[in-house]
Structures
1.
Amino acid sequence: TWKWVVGPMFLYLCERLVRFWRSQQKVVITKVVIHPFKTIELQMMKKGFKMEVGQYVFVKCPAVSKLEWHPFTLTSAPEEDYFSIHVRIVGDWTEGLFNACGCDKQEFQEAWKLPKIAVDGPFGTASEDVFSYETVMLVGAGIGVTPFASVLKSVWYKYCHDATNLKLKKIYFYWLCRDTHAFEWFADLLQSLEAQMQERNNAEFLSYNIYLTGWDESQATHFVVHHEEEKDVITGLKQKTLYGRPNWENEFKTIAGQHPGSRIGVFLCGPEGLADTLNKQSISNSEADPRGVHFIFNKENF
């Protein structure tokens, strides 16, 4: 038995030593942004830190807990001179981080008062392959939308600086959530991208659909009254919010018809049930002919 135990234990100890070494590297919090509905954005810098789109890191705050590490998706783009995470305050550890950063105080906080942060990573995910396709479908459910903040920011930077060498030509983005207010920071990002794409006369580059899966009767009445307004009453975007869940079979067939003979990347960050549905649709809507349309499914679950 010991022969089978020693190998894994040695690898585990090596991993713990590497994490301890990384935790001693200096991380500087350059900015703390408070978003609505108790969501904070930490912008940080670390010497030698290199990331790709959609990756994640483990974060430890000794002022809150000396042992706990928590995973967070990076919401910044590789082209930016910092890396960032968005933290929604939903438990004891996140509440402690919120208070340690001085977000519970009204006055301006000096940088030297911010807590020490340890960062381990970044670690790769399936979203890194998004630039390998000409056409992609990005599907985020709830908090699963965070990897696509990094993707969409990076796409915009690449598009602005060297659009001719950008292989990616079309993005279909789907966001399924019970309450968009919890992620208003992401709606702000979409508003910015929407405005910038219209300025460059390429609004068709990004096609997005937001599906609200939970609402009550009073909200439904409010939506109906303001449906004719130019911008959506929930997100402030020109694209109106849809209610319920998407008909995935129709969505796949429509996209397949618009891009015949293409390899289309399907990227999901969401629950396992949705992953099964998208995987089945990717298989059933791919043609047997190698020259036909093919959907390549990539996922990360939470």
2.
Amino acid sequence: YGHSNQLRQARAMGDYLIVGVHTDEEIAKHKGPPVFTQEERYKMVQAIKWVDEIAPGAPYVTTLETLDKYNCDFCVHGDDITLTIDGKDTYEEVKTAGRYRECKRTQGVSTTDLVGRMLLMTKAHHSNIDEDLDYRKHTDNFGKGPKGHSPWTGVSQFLQTSQKIIQFASGKEPQPGDTIIYVAGAFDLFHIGHVDFLEKVHQLSERPYIIAGLHFDQEVNRYKGKNYPIMNIHERTLSVLACRYVSEVVIGAPYAVTADLLDHFRVTLVCHGMTEVVSDKDGSDPYEEPKRRGIFQLVDSGSNLTTDLIVQRIIKNRLEFEARNQKKEAKELAVLEAMKKLEERH
């Protein structure tokens, strides 16, 4: 949702947003192993509602040539630094030409921190006990290099506000003639499996209005176990709202899809993917009511990617990721040092 927020801000600066997405090869060279393949990433970026077009295989360093090729007036980046493998600012050329704009980096999330949460595999961030030392140690150390920590890669708390939700929400009410479709789940680490599922659901009707019910963290932890969800309910809300197929989100939906809920939203259809449906606390089927009404449908997304598999990919790459994060941190700190020295001179 940090990336989505950047794209939202960029789109607001102009009329048409083209997003350049790098190849796996480019990312591996400059940053370390990507979590998703380029094909997955192309599709995920395309599914964000502020994106008009993607430029696959965009070069890591944005040049004037690239901007001209796609007929762009300017490019936008967050106010964090991106550096090439040899430590140069990747936006130098476009900045000099006056074709660079900056947007605010989203507070409270970084890919680096999410990776840290996955590697931990502790339940600390779901218990009310602050005493889980592993997690405390992680949040204390993560993103701290030998000399303090980088404000871009470090861990900070995500604070939800109504303003953020409004910026992400479509604000569209269902219209007469819309098919109101309800889907529910954790939607944790919003990924290509979710996108494929929602796209398939979206194709079920001429005029779909998709409502996504998100379960509270404790509920997700009950049926998923381990340290799931990796992202809390506030983070998951924004991630799902950023998807172009979703019209509305229920924040903290009941696990059982009740008659009340179906009547309240005037739901025509309830869909679920091919993943296992865990019984409710009392052992009942959470989809009993929509099945009784004959409005329940299983939808095969055709994707086998799950949040579990992403976590496995990360753990498999764990050593490479940890090395990558330390190097990234060190590079950012070096730039900060240089910037401080410059300021002292002036």
